[in-house]
Amino acid sequence: MLKVGLLGAGRIAGVHATAISGNPGSTLVAISDINTAAAEKIAAQYGAEARSTDAILSDSTIDAVLIATSTDTHSDLIERATAASKAVLCEKPVDLSLARAQACQKAVAATGRPVMIGFNRRFDPNFATLKNAVDAGEIGRPELLSITSFDPAPPPVAYIKVSGGLFRDMMIHDFDMANFIMGAAPKTVTAVGSSIVDPDIGGAGDVDTAVVTLTYADGRIAVIKNSRRAVYGYDQRVELLGSEGLLQAQNMLENTVVKSTTQGVTGAKPTYFFLERYMPAYAAEWAAFVEAVNGGNAVPVTLDDGVAALAMAEAATLSVKTGNPVSLASVLE
Amino acid sequence: MLKVGLLGAGRIAGVHATAISGNPGSTLVAISDINTAAAEKIAAQYGAEARSTDAILSDSTIDAVLIATSTDTHSDLIERATAASKAVLCEKPVDLSLARAQACQKAVAATGRPVMIGFNRRFDPNFATLKNAVDAGEIGRPELLSITSFDPAPPPVAYIKVSGGLFRDMMIHDFDMANFIMGAAPKTVTAVGSSIVDPDIGGAGDVDTAVVTLTYADGRIAVIKNSRRAVYGYDQRVELLGSEGLLQAQNMLENTVVKSTTQGVTGAKPTYFFLERYMPAYAAEWAAFVEAVNGGNAVPVTLDDGVAALAMAEAATLSVKTGNPVSLASVLE
Amino acid sequence: MLKVGLLGAGRIAGVHATAISGNPGSTLVAISDINTAAAEKIAAQYGAEARSTDAILSDSTIDAVLIATSTDTHSDLIERATAASKAVLCEKPVDLSLARAQACQKAVAATGRPVMIGFNRRFDPNFATLKNAVDAGEIGRPELLSITSFDPAPPPVAYIKVSGGLFRDMMIHDFDMANFIMGAAPKTVTAVGSSIVDPDIGGAGDVDTAVVTLTYADGRIAVIKNSRRAVYGYDQRVELLGSEGLLQAQNMLENTVVKSTTQGVTGAKPTYFFLERYMPAYAAEWAAFVEAVNGGNAVPVTLDDGVAALAMAEAATLSVKTGNPVSLASVLE
Amino acid sequence: MLKVGLLGAGRIAGVHATAISGNPGSTLVAISDINTAAAEKIAAQYGAEARSTDAILSDSTIDAVLIATSTDTHSDLIERATAASKAVLCEKPVDLSLARAQACQKAVAATGRPVMIGFNRRFDPNFATLKNAVDAGEIGRPELLSITSFDPAPPPVAYIKVSGGLFRDMMIHDFDMANFIMGAAPKTVTAVGSSIVDPDIGGAGDVDTAVVTLTYADGRIAVIKNSRRAVYGYDQRVELLGSEGLLQAQNMLENTVVKSTTQGVTGAKPTYFFLERYMPAYAAEWAAFVEAVNGGNAVPVTLDDGVAALAMAEAATLSVKTGNPVSLASVLE
Fold first, then answer.
1. Within a domain: residue C27?
2. Burial call B293-306: b when 16+ CB within 10 Å, e when fewer
3. What residue stretches are annotated with the GFO/IDH/MocA-like oxidoreductase domain (chains A, B, C, D) (predicted)?
4. Widest CA span of chain C, in angstroms?
5. Residue C71: which of C155, C10, C139 has the closest Cα?
6. How large is the ipTM?
7. C69, C100, C121 — which closes off a domain?
8. Could you tell me which of C211, C200, C142 has the C-alpha nearest to residue C174?
9. CB < 8 Å to C240, chain A
10. Which residues contact A76 (CB under 8 A, 6 or more apart)?
11. Which residues of A touch C139 (CB under 8 A)?
């Protein structure tokens, strides 16, 4: 039974608390947050204790921590937790700074402790099914990958300003999805972007609509499309053309009801946002972490994966600025 | 090259004229109608002559006639045309009177000439594909058939009064479809019906909404649903459950465009009515007739098929009146 | 906080235990089963006690019981629990005997306690959405209802023999669904059935494939199709034609992945059986019970609803035997 | 009645001959081809004459010519036909050389004769419906366009060598589609490509898989994906995200039959290739030409459109070579 400390008590921490409690192989022992009331509320709900982060990290009976705090604390907490011999599952991104994330990567390597990065979409039943089909050779050799990832509505501009920008904050999930599906890092990253949804996002130095093209050493190509606004809901699709067919993971819909009238044939919208769409993915992600740690096996998404996605975000950010393709190697140097 | 005379110059005759002209194995020679202007117009369009029906039937150079006149003339014209050694394709139904149709059946049998009944839906690419899959054993042994057949809007009550009623006028297509898919006639026919769409249809002694259940000697079951009104368009679906799976032939849509907004995800309606939906079926029906007659083979839908469907309509009409199941044998006696 | 005793510790009881524990308005206090090991296992998992049924019913601190025992005990337990002032949620069917269920109905009425029958499908998000759309007038006046309900595989013949037959055991859900959607009981019930899936089911005096047609006093019609075997999974669809459109609740699929190859375009199967399909419905059903009982409101599915569905099953059973339509009134006399 | 000469008697010329003959406003008078047997065959089928191109162009009773010859003859024939006062519909592309096409543009402008370029996809019912919905404001302001265009199988390498390359031969249709939907030319063109389908295509100096990103002056973005091989059939989809929704034009399928078995739920493949998919588009294209010319109105797709698409192909070709974005203005200088 994995004894778990939860760092952070915000909305996504609540999702993780449910997953930790619902998993027969783990138990939620303690939770910390600078907002102690929030920590106490989650603790009460799941029969855990609200403690300080220090108290959690120094408790040798706690086997693992789940880091669901703000992004700027991730690298520090990963380092402290692994130094304290905890297994770690940390929300994405590792850090907004590639250099800082790489330093964290080195520090963690020295401890030998497992650190899993919360790229929850790998555990979505639809994307996982697609990946399994690719690995089983069902469409032959992959050639051309397309990822569509639109949020239902843009966040406040105040959030945009501290987010690290669309590539580090939003498309980072899609960079990891490309790495997951393609099983390799790209050679070049070419990005275009604009702030056509909201000029204030442009005023804050960011884009809200972007297309990134990735090329691979063996000739494969991937393209990722992001928009901060799809009024019909969360649009999360993956499509892969291979030598023997096409795989598509389509949206989850709110329900299966279809209405035919003189106005046409109308079905439900996609589920609204990530909590609705990815709830099963969060549970599966945690189950995979517990299974790996309890079994002494490698975690399925590593800190290296987190750094790789961040490097692609860095390259895309640079590509939009310069207007030219950026080689991934140049960013990682 | 099959030389063809067309009897009738109404709307459906125009559809047939296009099919006859467009088929490389047939040529439209002459057309007749009591409305001579209508006959002349079609004749001009396709390089044929407007003649009297007598002139067409007595022209020994004409190989085949297509009968697209009003239902009450079908039996007579079939008998006269076969007596004149023509091959015949006649629009459904053979007759509103089962006894008259059976008499016609005997008369034709004596001539040995081929008579095909225009159950065009057998040649619809979707239903034909479904039938081929059944025959290929793709879903094992058929067990439960469902036919949904809704018109977009009811005809005028004046038409209803002379139509022979919903079972002879509308569901007769579905009776033939059941015979086509199941490859056997049913044992019993159980019908319920009401005039919920338009009470005036009830006032005229007919129903506008009906469900008919068919049982077969080997335990198979079929159910047919008819409504005179589906405001979203022509709803024509067939579904067959078998021991190893399910086959569904779904509606044809006006186009493939899908719109996602805050209101939902909306696609196009089904094609509006039989001309839009079954245009390819009419061409394929004619091609099958030409191929059979030119090749000296049996036509794929026979006068016997026409009589069989009419007997089922008779049984359904009786079942609605009596409120009890009717054995098909009792109707055919 | 509703204190709950769970009677029964079988598979479906486990589902209910999860729902009771997961609901913020209820807590699972005790569980009973003749298989005490099974009761103890569920009790341990959810922090409850394994007790005898008598002990649960006589514990005045327990507010409600959920009856998930075998069908032959339902009526007795409903009567005992309501006599002990408990609110009751009982799995369907109330009883295999209509007379016994009606006696239970009277006994319960004398206590004034709320008894909800577990027609979980009313709480399925898809069917609930369809019902809401009907009630909102989105397709005008309902005219023709179709319910398709196929199990993935037939149960053992030993089960068939004690099940009460397809109409009481399986189609009872669909009878209730018809009552739910149509908001009225039918006037006549006409059933046909056969044992084409497995002759041994026929040997046990039951059918495995059936079509039931319902007529309503106002001219509406409903048709229900049941099969004990759909090899592709649990097929649960509802379709309603109205004066201004059509509503369809389609199947839930295992995932959204679609594969296009030279063999066609293939998507996932429907979820396999009721546990997969209706898990959200069980949680919503319990939530509705808790909300009604805690709020002092009428429960949304009543014992009367359970008796009504059972009467339709009785009528259908009789109709198959006699080969004729059966008026519902004649069964209820 | 428009009197038409058809230049070319290959496969696509046969399609056009059917459209010309089937249109009530035009008649096919003559046809020419260096393969005189082919010309005579089409002439016989449609009651026209086989003549030399010179004879057609010098016949003052012929109002219009349809040019369906090899690409290298297009510019010359357009110039000769307009000089002879014919209205012209010419198959795409105008020329493989942008400079030559621009010279042709000037020559034609001097004659004032209408020249329509055969971008048939604008007349596909699905894409035309999508365009109408955009223009009607159904999804608000367009922001992000995606075009997927995959052929079922690559052409022979011998063809590749003389084709002008994927961008001029295949993606030119998609460049025109982008111009059609967006209503403006892009500012920059960024292309990546590889020969992952067939290395021999790379050996011939071409790519078989490519992604092109277009940016627009107002911040809109478009992305086009091409592959020479989609084994499941012709994949032709357009998707446009706007401020108030998403529009998708999906593939046409061979039929509507769906089969559910233990293997999944399988529907038909997309129609195989352009003749199957775009047959209705060719007829609608010709109808639009006839309507414009007979009515004295501007043709709906102009020589300018042909040059614009060719310039984008030129820019994309250059972008793949240099690895950098290319401004469209730099190509048009």
1. yes
2. beeeeebbbbbebb
3. 127-247
4. 66
5. C10
6. 0.95
7. C121
8. C211
9. none
10. none
11. 259, 261
Question: What pLDDT does residue A40 have?
Answer: 95
* Whether residue B153 sits in one domain with residue B63: no
Q: Does A90 lie in the same domain as A30?
A: yes
Please indicate, yes or no, whether residues C159 and C233 belong to a single structural domain of this protein: yes
- State the Cα–Cα distance between residues A107 and A92, nearest whole angstrom: 18
Looking at the structure, do residues D193 and D48 belong to the same domain, yes or no? no
Minimum CA–CA partner of D324 in chain A: A324
Distance CA(B189)–CA(A194), nearest Å, equals 66
Q: B148 lies in a domain?
A: yes
Q: What is the pLDDT of residue D44?
A: 85
Contacts of C192 (CB under 8 A, 6+ apart): B188, B190, B213, B215, B221, C210, C211, C320
My answer on whether C237 and C102 are in the same domain is: no
Q: Which two tokens stand for residue C187?
A: 């006037």
A 10 A CB-CB count for C40 gives 16
- Residue with tokens 């919208």, as numbered in its chain: A269
**What is the Cα C207 distance to its own chain's centre?**
19
Q: Which residue's entry shows tokens 């023509």?
A: B86
How many other CB atoms sit within 10 Å of the CB of residue A174? Answer: 24
Q: Which of A138, A257, A262 sits opposite C248 (nearest CB)?
A: A257
Cα separation of D194 and D173, whole Å?
Answer: 19
Which segments of chain B does DSSP mark as H helices, in order? Answer: 11-22, 36-46, 53-57, 74-83, 98-111, 125-135, 157-162, 166-169, 172-182, 199-203, 274-295, 303-322, 328-332
- What is the pLDDT, as a whole number, of residue D21? 85
CB contact under 8 A, C270 and D253: no
- Picking from B28, B65, B68, the residue whose alpha carbon sits closest to that of residue B50 is B28
Q: Distance between CA D231 and CA B179 in Å, rounded? A: 37
Contact B232 A265 (CB under 8 A): yes
Flag if C266 and D262 touch (Cβ within 8 Å): no
User: HEC profile for C14-67?
Assistant: HHHHHHHHHCCCEEEEEEECCCHHHHHHHHHHHCCEECCHHHHHCCCCCCEEEE
CATH number, residue B105 = 3.40.50.720
How confident is the model over B20-29, as a mean pLDDT?
89
B264 CB near a chain A CB, below 8 Å? yes
A154 and A83 in a common domain:
no
Structural domain containing residue A194: 122-279+309-332
- In chain C, the number of structural domains is 2
Does one domain contain both B126 and B275?
yes
In a domain, D262, yes or no: yes
List Cα–Cα distances, C331 to A280, C103, C323, C327, in angstroms.
47, 15, 16, 7
Distance in angstroms (rounded) separating the CA atoms of residues C81 and C79: 6
CATH code at A230? 3.30.360.10
Q: What CA dihedral angle connects A301, A304, A305 and A310, to 10 degrees? A: 140
User: Do B112 and B46 sit in the same domain of this protein?
Assistant: yes
Say if residue A4's pLDDT is above 80.
yes
Q: How far apart are CA C196 and CA C188, in angstroms?
A: 25
**A147 touches D at CB < 8 Å:** no
pLDDT recorded at residue B301: 97
Asked which of C78, C95, C121 is the last residue of a domain, the reply is C121
The pLDDT tens digits of the residues spanning D187-208 come to 999 999 999 999 999 999 999 9
